[in-house]
Amino acid sequence: MFRRASAAVIGRRITSVVADDPIVVPTPEVVRAVSGGRVVDVVRHGKVMGIVVRHQRREQTIDVHFGMSGRVIVDGRSPIEELAYGASDDSRWHRFVLVFERGSLVLSDPRRFARVTSADDRAPLGPDAWSIDLRTFRERLGGRRTAVKAALLDQSLVAGLGNMLVDEILMLSAVDPRRSVASLDARTVASIHRHTRAVLDRLWKRGGSHAGDLAAELRRPGAPCPRDGAAMVRGTVGGRTTFWCPQHQF
Ligand SMILES: [Zn+2]
After folding, report:
1. 134-244 adopts what CATH topology?
2. Beta 71-74 vs 104-108: how paired, if at all?
3. Structure pTM?
4. pLDDT band at 124 (very low <50, low <70, confident <90, very high)
């Protein structure tokens, strides 16, 4: 339903761009350059929504990274009202707005974790985590000795996975985030690949905002694992705060 709402903006001409929040929009001059252009496509790259704009025979893609609490509002309506952040909205949370001849697309984010960038300043990315096939997934991870969590977060290997998503994927795959990639057998890699796709599918249906199952209630030490009730533990893996279940993740 999120995609449907976004697709509603295809074909519209952008009359102006509001991009005044320097945290959410770090390169406003690049992003504002789409003003006057026309939206020709809305694509997805992992959990990033790409808005493709054609302007003076040139195409530019604006990437919307939703962060934890960002959501999109098209023509004043959110396609994801049922989410944790609910129907409440406040114009102070509008970090980025594409104003069309008629209607608008707004990125609303009370917590300012969302980011709007241009694909023009995007670093080289690995293949998209959602569409990557198992063989490529296996090749990208390779036999490296780094922790599997760190490898999944490395955007140059596989693009589109954030910290909480990776914790969720590894919990579902029953893999200890500290394990080295080299120690995983083929079946385990296949399980991680399958759960990556499933988690991203669910995320996308929710509108790109990660109010995930492992998000709030499980991200504290001692919270009961939803599978077996064991107390979740917290540690640092790959430089990031990580939660896992010591009972079923090994
Ligand atoms: Zn467990």
Report:
1. Helicase, Ruva Protein; domain 3 (1.10.8)
2. antiparallel
3. 0.56
4. low
The architecture CATH gives domain 2-121: Alpha-Beta Barrel (3.20)
Q: Where in the chain is the domain with CATH 1.10.8.50?
A: 134-244
Distance 226 CA to ligand 1 centre (A): 7
Tokens for 10?
Answer: 């295809």
Q: Which of the four pLDDT bands, split at 50, 70 and 90, describes residue 199? A: confident
Which of 211 and 35 is assigned the larger pLDDT?
Answer: 35
Which residue type sits at 99?
V
pLDDT of 157 over the 70 cut: yes
Distance, CA 231 to ligand 1 centroid (Å)?
A: 8
Give yes or no for residue 196 having a pLDDT over 50.
Answer: yes
From ligand 1's centre to the CA of 149, what distance in Å? 17
Task: Determine the distance separating the centroid of ligand 1 and the alpha carbon of 222, expressed in angstroms.
Answer: 12
Residue 244 Cα to ligand 1 midpoint, Å, equals 8
For residue 109, the tally of other CB atoms under 10 A from its CB is: 26
Query: CA dihedral in degrees (183, 190, 142, 168; nearest 10)?
Result: -80
Residue 45 Cα to ligand 1 middle (Å): 30
